[in-house]
Amino acid sequence: MSHDTLTANNYLTKFAHLIRLFLDSSRSRFIALGEEVRLLTLYIELEKLRFDDKFEFEIVLDANVSKYFEMPTMILQPFIENAINHGLRYKKRERIIKYKILYRSRTIICKIEDNGVGRRNVAQIQSKSRKGCNRKA
Q1: Distances in Å between the alpha carbon of 101 and those of 6, 29, 80?
Q2: Is the pLDDT of residue 42 over 70?
């Protein structure tokens, strides 16, 4: 939309790669953790482009977690998407999302943290914008 060919090309290349990864992962019920991290990293990089690099992200993988550990396919991406589109979207400065994969007591824990505005604030913001849309001119 801004006639930035280089950025558009970069976005389309990453998007095409992400779609291929999604299609490949959708063929089975489980995905290796290393592939899930790769898929989530690419997804977050695309969202960063969409949001003009206005947030930072960090993926922390505990050294004790095998990248070959299998987990259900597409279980984490919706949570990341929600954190970005709802939590970080309305934040003015210093937007950060962290995705941590930890190993504790023979259990793998996937933890998503963001410093967004919070669910209550998002509900209020969305409620106000809906009320503004319902007004007649």
Answers
A1: 34, 20, 13
A2: yes
